[in-house]
Specification:
The structure is a homodimer of 192-residue chains. Chain A is α+β, with helices and mostly antiparallel strands and 192 residues long. Chain A folds into two domains: 140 residues, Jelly Rolls, CATH 2.60.120; 44 residues. Chain A has a five-stranded mixed β-sheet. A four-stranded antiparallel β-sheet of chain A has the order 2-9-4-7. The first copy, chain A, is elongated and about 60 Å long. Chain A starts with a strand and ends in a 7-residue tail after the last helix. Chains A and B meet through α2 and α4 of A and α2 and α4 of B. Chain A binds a DNA duplex (30 and 30 nucleotides) through α7.
Chain lengths: 192, 192
DNA sequence: CGCGTAATTGAAAAGTATCAACACTGGTGG
DNA sequence: CCACCAGTGTTGATACTTTTCAATTACGCG
């Protein structure tokens, strides 16, 4: 459930320490703060050094859908930079977050001067497509109980970090349905 | 609903005509044939010259979910090539399809020798992530009627190409539900 | 014509949302 | 110390939506 991408962080942390690293800045976000805002332009990419964020889409009918939780090593904002579009989701810090950030112009310069970054990003993006597509398919094709079990396995370690509402928004269901599904998992035999 | 990517096709058709184009082959698929098979390795990328394909995930519970319909100019198989993974879906020709294809080794050589291809692919992938994520969010957050209307607008032109089952699989619902939703759209006031 | 596939429809069962009430927690100010 | 409040979590009852199952019709094609 939480995405991790070791290669990218290694690249940027090396870069940050080198003479060419002047374009790599660091920034810190407190719990609950937004790193990227839905509907706004994005002026730099972020790479998470540590912490956990949620990528959350606010639909115009008032519902929130959590695209994904991102953690250490993941890149944010690259979609908007590459296609010059506004962001389609909010990215909010669930824990305190430390991140590198690089503005658009410097980021393109890095792509020019570091060939290996191109392939790292191609791989990262290919992974994002794959994961997003697989999750969409599974959530559409399976009942709540199945998706919930998968989610609980992945989130077991950090269970305290995620509110029930977050879990419901991730599964695309209401809080009430989440609670019922959980109690049914715990042996209550689903009265008919 | 149908994805199109003009830049990529222009790049490969130019390349195909040039002296460096020996690595770009062409292939033709009849309606109903599979271009990529779920669970199998992918040995080359495809760029659609013309025709329409559906990218369909076969879940282990027997349900099929259509990820997307791809048309002219879209690239296929790049996810699997970049991350060296087996394919997570079948890609099936809905109409007759003509496509360029380039094997993995040659594809990487092109990436080395044509810097501009890197950025074209980064943009293409960023777009795929975005579209996939937005669709997942919308389908999870809205009732069938809403999603159906959006779908019908996009597919109106080629309505005859898509079976009802395809439309249902795209929406992640059963054929029965699709039929009810359609008749309710056409004025039948949803008997209670 | 006859067969197989696609499309349609009804009725019952299963799943999910909505609404509303209530419990638990931590912090704030009187 | 306690009353109060806001946020989070829990639970029940009911209404609504979607699936499942089954039966029937429509259509293309050898």
């Amino acid at each position: 459930m939480i995405r991790i991408n070791q290669e990218l962080l290694t690249f940027f942390s090396k870069l940050s320490g080198s003479s060419a690293g002047s374009s790599v800045m660091e920034k810190r976000f407190a719990t609950g703060n937004n790193i990227i805002n839905q509907g706004k332009h994005v002026t730099s990419v972020f790479i998470i050094k540590n912490g956990i964020v949620k990528c959350i889409v606010n639909e115009e009918n008032g519902r929130d859908f959590i695209q994904e939780f991102f953690s250490q090593d993941e890149i944010l904002g690259e979609l908007e930079i590459f296609n010059n579009t506004i962001s389609f989701c909010n990215v909010e810090a669930i824990t305190e977050v430390e991140a590198y950030h690089i503005n658009k112009k410097d980021f393109y310069a890095l792509l020019e001067n570091h060939r290996e970054l191109n392939i790292l990003l191609l791989r990262a993006l290919a992974n994002k497509v794959r994961d997003t597509a697989i999750r969409a398919s599974q959530q559409q094709s399976h009942p709540i109980a199945y998706n919930l079990q998968k989610l609980l396995v992945f989130s077991a370690d950090q269970a305290r970090l995620f509110s029930k509402q977050d879990l419901a928004n991730y599964l695309g269901i209401t809080l009430r349905s989440l609670n019922r599904a959980i109690s049914e998992l715990n042996g209550v035999p689903k009265e008919s």
